[in-house]
Design a protein that fits this description.
alpha/beta, seven-stranded mixed beta sheet, two-stranded antiparallel sheet, 15 helices, globular
Length: 381
């Protein structure tokens, strides 16, 4: 939900439904309570998995309950790995009711998370109004100049930086916490996450219902290639930095692992998908990550685990296990159009990457004045 900010011309700010300035203290309590419930859920989730896996040993091999549990676990795993193995990239389980649940708004208002539409994005929308899906001119009773994005193409939105958990990406694009469907009517959101989530019992169903896909080339390509999925208007959110960028998460810096990333630009050209640069101010401040410095022996071990095994090894803390209550401001830039090139050359890929980095850097420099005045330069490694 959006309202026009009077202090920052041209910037659209989220509008919190049902809460005014007089109820902010109550709202903080509700948000904190939701975070406590969330932590309890995770504890219960892992406890439930533990019970399912160890119950047969407690009951004994001859107990009837043991047999029922074993058969149930075997059937679930068999269905997951054999019959339903392709759902991690087809996104067939998207559940709008779960995405729109008020739980998410209360959860992410703990920080809070806010989505800001840049001047460049608004200008792009105005130039493409005839192709845009109408409906976002009046959001939650507030007039705005943004009229959505054309739904006759697909988009690859790149979120920076990763931070520890990417709360901003999940809030803005993985749920309806800030009103994605009202801001971008006609677009179908997909968020690429670690493939391990799709191998975890029960958790797999939750992330699929939210519109998540595995963060691999085949899965992302399926949603972006109109010939493969037979559809347009898909917006796929990825975090290019991945696990390597998590190790660079610092409260006082913005370090992006982007110099060695070329696959996303090749994919954008091969599928003809527009690239959307997105920068998040505050994502790295909600947790403090303890990781070895680049070039040290322990850091080389951490890099090895990430590159070879996809496993991150580091320590972190916030308010205990809960994050700090610090605002996360997600600024969405203008799409960079890409013509479909089935076999792009290295020069074409390098040119697109150069244009993308220029747009991302410009976005960072322009909006850090509003959301993180003490931020230094945007560093890319």
């Amino acid at each position: 939900m959006l309202s026009v900010s009077s202090t920052k011309p041209g910037i659209l700010r989220p509008f919190t439904t049902g809460h005014d300035l007089d109820s902010q203290n109550c709202h903080k309590v509700v948000s904190l309570a939701v975070f406590i419930v969330t932590n309890i859920f995770w504890l219960y989730y892992f406890y439930l998995l533990y019970c399912l896996l160890t119950a047969p040993f407690y009951f004994g091999p001859s107990h009837p309950r043991s047999s029922v549990l074993l058969v149930g676990i075997i059937c679930y795993v068999a269905y997951h790995w054999i019959k339903d193995k392709d759902t991690s990239f087809r996104g067939v389980y998207l559940n709008k009711m779960l995405r729109h649940a008020s739980f998410w708004s209360n959860l992410f208002n703990y920080f809070p998370v806010q989505m800001i539409l840049s001047d460049e994005l608004i200008e792009y929308s105005q130039k493409n109004q005839e192709f845009s899906t109408s409906g976002s001119d009046d959001v939650q009773g507030h007039r705005c100049a943004f009229s959505g994005l054309p739904a006759d193409r697909n988009y690859l939105l790149c979120y920076h930086p990763h931070g520890l958990m990417g709360q901003g990406a999940l809030a803005c694009f993985g749920t309806e916490a800030v009103g994605f469907s009202k801001v971008f009517p006609g677009l179908k959101p997909w968020v690429a996450i670690h493939p391990a989530f799709f191998r975890a019992p029960l958790m797999r169903e939750i992330v699929l219902s939210l519109g998540s896909i595995a963060a691999t080339n085949n899965e992302i390509r399926y949603q972006l290639d109109t010939e493969m999925c037979g559809d347009k208007g898909n917006l796929v959110t990825i975090v290019p930095g991945g696990g390597m960028e998590m190790l660079e998460s610092r409260n006082d810096s913005y370090t992006l692992y982007l110099n060695r990333r070329y696959g996303i630009f090749r994919l954008a050209l091969e599928t003809g998908s527009a690239l959307i640069p997105t920068i998040s101010f505050g994502e790295t401040k909600v947790y403090t990550v303890i990781a070895a410095k680049r070039g040290t022996f322990f850091r080389r071990i951490q890099d090895y685990f990430i590159e070879m095994l996809g496993v991150q090894t580091f320590l972190f803390y916030g308010n205990g296990l809960a994050p700090y209550r610090r605002s996360v401001n997600v600024v969405v830039g203008a799409p960079i159009p890409c013509d479909r090139v089935p076999h792009p050359t290295r020069e074409q890929i390098a040119e697109l990457k150069s244009n993308y980095i220029k747009s991302l850097t410009s976005l960072f420099e322009k909006y850090k004045v509003f959301f993180d005045p003490e931020a230094g330069e945007l560093e890319m490694i």
